[in-house]
């Protein structure tokens, strides 16, 4: 492979890794997000408390008044979207009023819901800690107006539609009382161990972990409602609600929601499992926002061995990456970071070596190259089948990675077919084979490296970040540089040979 091809390999691989299907609006032109205020970043909003506050210099207003609105934080942010809306208690959430800028270099006005200057956003991804704007109350303003803000700390770290202060028309009695600062989401604190010990109660009842549904849990408000439900996972995308929980209670202590509940060890209902049997325990956690429960974005945490719920409590260990998926990643890395690369090196730079020696009737470089590439194809075939065996089909949430894997497998199988029909070395059509063999091999290697970059973040194969990514980038960089040096050396040898032959 030439140095140009290697540079393209590295550039395309890194570019594909950082590519996402949605656009990045570093210039703040985010009018597409006016409705739900969700950036198209392909990641869910954070559920931990926001480090940002939205405040106003007044709690009341009259038509034509100018209210100062300040977005500030204890850490920097790269983007934001600020709007004023009618409150939900009035039966709508329409955009209200306009804004005036105090810093046109860092902020800009947007047209949302066909209303000019009804929203404010950033002008670039420059980091900042405070934004000050002025909200202008319209003549037909409602009795209550609430400010909302979406804040992007980094592309993949963002808080969506944080509710800010509510201000009231002069003469309107605030009900219920509202906070004048942004209400942070609920902070769910986790224990460093996999499971907390579970207490066993009498009369055949036991405490056990279940799927929790947290609704309307806003700890900064005077009221907090939490519901605890039990479900059966009938397939990968459907939960069937079940009954049978009792003694349900919860409490809020130091920002941690603690829930307790019970269910009988044995249930008469068909299909309901008994708690005195041994099971592998799965824990999947996601975030809930505005009463909606979102799907977990990480592979469930699975206990390393079966556990009997009614047995004495113990601390369990577990893993998020199944062994079969770890094996898939290991085999693919072995195939395309070792055997495939070495085989390509041999064919590209070691043909002149051992000119008078043969191995099993063929030149040494050819036998080594062919053996390594056959091993590469074999490892690829085995590794390719493992995710399908684990998933029992196609993975719908793996993004571009499986498509690249299919391409790598297809091209890997085409290469030996091309080699089997290669013309003789002195044939006039030999150059066609040489270019086809080199081109297919180069494209296969590029796709394989891109698939490795995208596979690093798959939920079923969690590798330590960012070190794993740094190691892979370092390896590709070293590979490109080493091939470039060998290419320079090869041209230098050819030049010296021509000089000696003159």
UniProtKB/TrEMBL annotation:
**Cellular location(s):** Membrane; Secreted
Q: Which cofactor does it need?
A: heme b
Q: Quick one: where is this thing mainly located?
A: membrane
Query: Per its UniProt entry, which superkingdom is the organism in?
Result: Eukaryota
Record-level GO cellular component terms: extracellular region; membrane
Q: Which Gene3D superfamilies does this one have?
A: 1.20.120.1770, Reeler domain
**Where in the sequence is the signal peptide annotated?**
1-24
- Biological process terms in GO annotation: defense response to bacterium; innate immune response
Residue ranges of every copy of the Reelin domain listed in the record? 15-184
The answer to whether UniProt assigns keyword Glycoprotein to this entry is: yes
The alphabetical list of record keywords is: Antibiotic, Antimicrobial, Electron transport, Glycoprotein, Immunity, Innate immunity, Membrane, Secreted, Signal, Transmembrane, Transmembrane helix, Transport
Q: Which stretches are transmembrane?
A: 329-350, 371-390, 402-421, 433-455, 467-488
InterPro entries associated with the record: Cyt_b561/ferric_Rdtase_TM, Ferric-chelate_Red/DefProt, Reeler_dom, Reeler_sf
Task: Indicate the segments forming the Cytochrome b561 domain, all copies.
Answer: 290-495
| Family named by the database record | Belongs to the insect defense protein family.
Q: What is this protein called?
A: Ferric chelate reductase 1
């Amino acid at each position: 492979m030439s140095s140009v091809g290697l540079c393209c390999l590295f550039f395309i691989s890194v570019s594909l890794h950082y590519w996402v299907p949605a656009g990045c609006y570093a210039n703040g032109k985010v009018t597409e997000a006016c409705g739900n205020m969700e950036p198209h970043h392909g990641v869910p909003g954070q559920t931990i408390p926001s480090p940002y506050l939205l405040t106003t210099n007044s709690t009341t207003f009259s038509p034509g008044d100018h209210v100062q609105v300040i977005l500030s934080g204890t850490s920097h942010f790269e983007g934001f979207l600020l709007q004023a809306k009618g409150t939900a208690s009035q039966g709508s959430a329409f955009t209200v009023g306009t804004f005036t800028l105090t810093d046109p270099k860092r902020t800009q006005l947007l047209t949302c819901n066909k209303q000019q200057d009804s929203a404010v956003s950033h002008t670039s991804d420059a980091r900042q800690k405070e934004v000050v704007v002025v909200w202008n109350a319209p003549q037909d303003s409602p009795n209550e107006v609430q400010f909302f803000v979406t804040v992007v700390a980094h592309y993949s770290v963002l808080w969506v539609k944080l509710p800010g202060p509510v201000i009231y028309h002069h003469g309107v009695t605030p009900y219920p009382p509202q906070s004048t600062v942004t209400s942070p989401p609920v902070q769910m604190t986790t224990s460093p161990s996999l499971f907390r010990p579970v207490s066993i109660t009498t009369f055949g009842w036991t405490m056990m972990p279940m799927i929790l549904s947290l609704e309307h849990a806003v700890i900064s408000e005077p009221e907090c409602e939490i519901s605890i439900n039990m479900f059966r996972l009938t397939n990968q995308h459907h939960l069937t609600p079940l009954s049978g929980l009792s003694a349900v209670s919860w409490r809020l202590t130091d920002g941690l929601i603690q829930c307790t509940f019970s269910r009988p060890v044995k249930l008469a209902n068909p299909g309901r499992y008994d708690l005195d049997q041994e099971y592998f325990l799965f824990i999947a956690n996601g975030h809930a926002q505005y009463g909606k429960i979102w799907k977990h974005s990480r592979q469930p945490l699975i206990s390393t061995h079966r556990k009997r719920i009614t047995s004495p409590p113990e601390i369990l260990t577990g893993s998020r990456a199944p062994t079969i998926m770890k094996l898939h990643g290991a085999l693919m890395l072995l195939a395309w970071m070792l055997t495939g690369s070495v085989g390509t090196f041999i064919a590209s730079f070691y043909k002149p070596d051992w000119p008078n020696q043969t191995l099993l009737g063929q030149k040494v470089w050819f036998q080594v190259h062919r053996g390594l590439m056959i091993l590469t194809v074999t490892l690829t075939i085995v590794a390719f089948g493992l995710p399908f065996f684990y998933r029992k089909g196609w993975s719908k949430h793996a993004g571009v990675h499986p498509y690249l894997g299919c391409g790598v497998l297809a091209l890997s199988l085409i290469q030996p077919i091309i080699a089997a029909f290669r013309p003789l070395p002195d044939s006039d059509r030999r150059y066609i084979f040489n270019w086809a063999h080199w081109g297919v091999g180069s494209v296969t290697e590029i796709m394989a490296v891109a698939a490795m970059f995208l596979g690093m973040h798959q939920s079923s194969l969690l590798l330590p970040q960012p070190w794993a990514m740094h190691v892979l980038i370092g390896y590709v960089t070293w590979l490109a540089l080493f091939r470039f040096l060998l290419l320079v050396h090869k041209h230098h040898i050819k030049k010296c040979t021509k000089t000696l032959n003159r």
